[in-house]
Write a structure and sequence with these properties.
This protein is an alpha+beta fold and 353 residues long. The chain is built from 11 helices and 14 strands. A hairpin with a 5-residue loop joins β1 and β2. α5 runs antiparallel to α6. This is Histone acetyltransferase HPA2.
Amino acid sequence: MRRAIFAGSSAEGRALLARARAIHLAMVSEAGLPILRTVNAVVLDDAIAFHGAPAGEKMEGLDRPVVVSAEETVATIPSWFLDPERACPATTLYVSAQVHGTLREVTDPARKARVLQALMEKYQPEGGHRPIDAEHPLYAKAVRGLLVAEVSLENVDYKEKLGQNRTEADRLTILEKLWQRGEDGDVRAITRVVSRFPELPRPAFLRCAIPGIRLQCWVDEVELVEARALLEDAYWLQDIPAQDHVTAMARSPVRVGARDTSGKLVAFARALSDERRVAWIFDVVVDASLRKTGVGSAIMELLLDHPAVRRARRVRLATRDAMEFYRRKGFCELAEAPRPGAWSSVEMVRTNA
């Protein structure tokens, strides 16, 4: 890699290849012509593998050097984030992985079946089929007839371009501008940059006056188990199965949290929003040991400042016992809220079986 500041670990590269929905396979044909194909692939053991028809261009790459790659765009950074006139600062934050190796055909039927089953588990995780077994009558012929090929993950290069070549002031400006812009992926990009530079001062919207508390503007899906644990005794979830609730949280585009010095998640809140008319707030919770310390106010202020919430004309929620807390945040009862025009309405609900 030309610039060492962008180099990451091979483990991070493997993780990117494993979660990529598609990878690029580059090779040279027998005639010396370049070939580039996009394929579905799966990381299995110490290789990345894919399948295809036993004829065609991919066959020409067998036993030849190839390059496998995948990438993720983290955020696009327009020039005006950093300079009001010059176009030069425009850039893209991204991560990428490359594997250099030899494309080998998998001939062992059991190994082929494992690759095919792993592909199904990645791209059809809900199941709905009989597991692939090379000996089963449903699959024996298909397994024999398919091409399965793989490349060793011995040589993985991982690159992350997340502002390492920028000054501290520029990084903070980029974080603030991403928060202001609030396009799809911008909030996650903030979290990624903050994690990459733990020594970076917190941007204004993530600063917390409570000692030992760090706010986070995005709670990843793998962290939702912690959020569910915080909400275990919430009265509004008494009849909701735990897995249904985790799914509901995962489908919320707004998820904020707070952690203490040990790294424990101690506060959480989420919202749904159309970013124009209305946003609905759900699951505001603070660890019992930190209630009445200001953590709840901090998490609510972060949630209300979230781009998807602040752009909504109205922000709504329901509570049984925290009315005074929410009044201090600018909320009022629905009957007290001003309505445009002279129309009135009745709230209705349908319960699905």
